[in-house]
Amino acid sequence: MTRPASALAALALFVFLGACARGPETPQELLAQMLARYSANRGAVGGFVVTGGGAEATHGALPDSTSELAPPTIAPVGGEQPSGEALSLLAQHVPNVRLLAERLRTANMEGPRDLRGHRVYILTGAPEAPGAPTLYVVVDAETFDVREIEQSVAADTLARPLVTRLLYDDFRTADGLTLPYRVRQINEGVDQLIPQTERMVRGGQLSVSRGQIELLPPGREREERRAAIDRELRLYTDGVQETDLRVDRVRVTPRSR
């Protein structure tokens, strides 16, 4: 670790320890606690492999200081080709808190407050340039893990913003490493990018298919097919596109001594 990086880490730890007793009062104190949590969690292991959605992602060790992380190596497992949505979520399964902290250096902070059953802080970062997204990050007030990342872009040609949300839930600890075991991505406003004729035609087709599914015998197959059609219908009727990744297993590589 370089001397400036060491000094920054020491300062972050000092702020972290001082703020723990009372809770963060400024965005900078919250970012310091997030960074300390991230370094202690990921830095405690040499690497890890996450399996879910028909694929596995292999993550290397956390670098000493840089925010630039090598992306995980992703490969199919089980003989089936995973969907593109599953691969995308697996690649985004672990937020890069160091990079988020860089983007949120001048963010505003709200909280703590209750949100969907959790006590959280919310950081709002202004767009880095005209046309760039506004960044919202929801942080657990007890663990300082990232619970949600939202990016919102407003365009003059669109009536509503385009919003992408990543929601992290079901946190578990395996061999000292805490990770979310469920990740959802919700895109909103997508219908504005689809021609009206396509929305009408495809929406009608899906409505007919849903009616046909209701004729199937009750059971898991009917429920899964109905849920898949309902998800696609929301895209064409409400502009909401949702994908969901459930983690099946995490294998941790011990850190080299």
Largest sheet: 10 strands, antiparallel
Radius of gyration: 21 Å
Widest sheet: strand ordering: 3-2-1-10-9-8-7-6-5-4
Whole-number mean pLDDT: 87
Task: Compose a concise summary of this entry.
This protein has about 260 residues and is of the alpha+beta class. It has six helices and ten strands, in the order ααβββααββββββααβ.
Description:
The chain is α+β, with helices and mostly antiparallel strands and 257 residues long. 33% of the residues lie in helices and 34% in strands. The protein contains 6 helices and 10 strands, in the order ααβββααββββββααβ. The protein has a 10-stranded antiparallel β-sheet with strand order 3-2-1-10-9-8-7-6-5-4. Helix 1 (3-20) crosses helix 2 (27-42). It starts with a helix and ends with a strand. Mean pLDDT is 87; it is low at 1-10.
List the helices and strands and how they pair.
Layout: H1 3-20, H2 27-42, E1 45-52, E2 55-59, E3 73-76, H3 84-91, H4 97-103, E4 108-115, E5 118-125, E6 134-140, E7 146-153, E8 162-174, E9 177-188, H5 196-213, H6 220-237, E10 241-254
Antiparallel strand pairs: 1-2, 1-10, 2-3, 4-5, 5-6, 6-7, 7-8, 8-9, 9-10
